[in-house]
Amino acid sequence: MADLEKLQRFVESLSENDYLRLRRGFGIGLYLYNQLRDIAPPYLLENLQRFDRMSFEKKKVLLQELGGFLSSYRSLRERKRKLEQVKSKPLRDFLIPLDRLSFLDRSELRVLQGLGINTLLDLLFYFPLRYEDRRVLSNLRLVRPGEKVVLRLRVKDTKRLREGPYTAEVTCTDGDEEIRLRFRYRRSDFIHALYRRGREILVFGKVRTYRGERYMVHPELLNEEECGRIVPVYYNRIRGEATRISSKTRQKRIRKAIERSVRRTAPYLPEYLPSELLEKYSFPPLKET
């Protein structure tokens, strides 16, 4: 495992004195790749393998992404260290009904009960279907076709389309490169109000290319609170009156309820696997997972 504090200082030193060390250095990408290959996400590792062949501007952007990742990872390790000092509670404390949990509101309870989640233990063990990487990228040059990413952009122009499969198109920029957001609605007037010229936006979607032009189809417009991390995506087809709630709203309520429950109660979960199995298979403690 790399010395993360030392590595972060090295990354920060590359930007000092107007990036003098970055301009003169050689083999920086290879060094960073070898130090981080066991912990960094795939998109960072792929870019680090190409780092030494990148343009100077691209290197600067990637260093910013790398600095953010190292800060987040060090914070996560510190939280794990604190968890080890928390005393567990008996399992019966986790079999209480959801409606006795003061930190869940009524709207969240409706959605959770519609999913058949009835106790705190049910809630803590309701696992995601998949995860989405919603860490923000501010440079289109780092995006590869087919990737689902969050982009920070500025709106340049919005227009109606008379021909083709789409009815509205929004042209955006990261400051250098452009990307188009395309929509297919019968009535697209609201697109002009939502994507006003000059507005700074955060959008999530799959980046596609056609004849060298980047575009997204029906991207999701996000706020700052919904970005900057990897988020879980849960099964949310439910029964009962909560079916009238949109899928996106149900997803948000499930995510917030589980995040709050995990933060408040998971550190006290008792371990049920024998220590021999934990050691034999290198399983992390339950409260950590």
Automatic annotation (TrEMBL):
Give the RecG wedge domain ranges.
Answer: 110-236
Q: Which InterPro entries match?
A: NA-bd_OB-fold, RecG/Mfd, RecG_wedge
Gene Ontology molecular function:
DNA helicase activity; hydrolase activity
Top-level taxon of the source organism: Bacteria
Q: Which GO terms describe its biological process?
A: DNA repair
**Pfam families linked to this entry:** RecG_wedge (PF17191)
| Assigned keywords, A-Z | ATP-binding, Helicase, Hydrolase, Nucleotide-binding
User: What are the boundaries of the signal sequence?
Assistant: none
- The protein depicted here goes by the name DNA helicase RecG
